Amino acid sequence: MYKIGLVGAGNVAWHLGIALEKAGHQVINVYSRHWDRAQQLAQALLAAKPTNQLDFSNSEAEIFFIAVTDDALAEVVSKLLVPENSIIAHTSGTHALSLAQKKKTFPAVFYPLQTFTKNKPIDFQNIPICIESNHIESLDKIRTIAQSMSNYVYEINSEKRQLLHLAAIFTCNFSNFLFTIGKDILEKNEMPFELLQNLVNETVQKAFLLSPENAQTGPAKRGDNSIIQKHLSILNQYPSEWKTLYEQFSSQIYNYHKKLT
Amino acid sequence: MYKIGLVGAGNVAWHLGIALEKAGHQVINVYSRHWDRAQQLAQALLAAKPTNQLDFSNSEAEIFFIAVTDDALAEVVSKLLVPENSIIAHTSGTHALSLAQKKKTFPAVFYPLQTFTKNKPIDFQNIPICIESNHIESLDKIRTIAQSMSNYVYEINSEKRQLLHLAAIFTCNFSNFLFTIGKDILEKNEMPFELLQNLVNETVQKAFLLSPENAQTGPAKRGDNSIIQKHLSILNQYPSEWKTLYEQFSSQIYNYHKKLT
Predict the structure, then answer these.
(1) So what's the architecture of A161-260 in CATH?
(2) What is the pTM of this model?
(3) Model ipTM value
(4) Chain B within 8 Å of A96 (Cβ-Cβ)?
């Protein structure tokens, strides 16, 4: 059981704080720039004190998790005051370990690979947690905490973590925007987005079962130009950027699969 | 219970034939250009005779399902010989009802909205089936068959079906290609694609629970330029088309969500 300081009160901090306590650790400090947000999160935890000051010099916590936006991370770490020999662990997918480096403390990374929404509960057990530190004892402690929360703990260095984050953006963020376009097309024509739910689930299942390159279907892969031309002419009634995406994907899918055969 | 002729022996025909029999119908003819394929599928069914000829003039079937590629559909229908007053139902997402039109027969569309793989069993009960006919009795029969197989039967005209197919291509085909890119980035850096499985599942769940525009996250939505520039510089080591996609998505996501706020 570790005593923990939690810096941040956004989506990641909420889920992280609750999962830490569920795993038996004690979150004793919660920081947010906004007093009321710090207080709200502290209330959801067992024994946490809220604060809007970054001075934890007198805290009993030995590990401080920094769950703030990527933009704010450097400034928050520079202003942070913690006891000597504390571990400072940031939770960013993109930033290097060095961003958590500060005099007389040990840097670490604790990156849960998941998309968090405040009111949607999530089971940490199945979330991959990527950890890193250049200090062996700190890495051991961070690993112990990660393993107490999740079955999937990976030691991954900063360079790889950045690539993992990039892969996640292609796979999840960008796909979600394609879902947005699909939904817009359907709703403009009085059809519900739910029509596609079963097909999306099957697409995802197949991608992980057969691997996505083996699961690819559609007119672009078949090089079925008559269908592609028909779709491009329909797309003239929609935002021109959608047509740009359709053309890009059709030619990239065709070329990718031509190379494979 | 209907007696059915099945024209085609590819993925759609396999799943359709098996689901038809499971729902209590009798597939009595199976056609493929390739005799052995017709025979294989006929063997998987209870009482079907294989053939590589399109002459069904003496068949007892009253409904003929055409499950061939979009390219081949027109030619197959034109060569098809069936008894007078038969229903000819094509299974294409893109082609109009008129493609199933032929003298002295009734045209219909029976489009199961799903991606089929031969050796992966699939539960038809949850697959949306889109039906259409311009002949009331034929539509009734097609509806009866569809409802005997699936809980989700929709009467959708040719124009809307084409738009549904287009939406499915954005949502599923193109997303699957993004999965391919994500997997390639990971595997080139010795990380398994499975790292992303939990995140992809959660992304899909959230898209249908909250709707995709509300579920959008990531640097593009936040307008976080420092991360975007970092990713673009990493992408210089990868196929230039990936960078094109990254730039397109980042600017489209940013603009789409700027308009919403």
Answers:
(1) Orthogonal Bundle (1.10)
(2) 0.90
(3) 0.90
(4) no
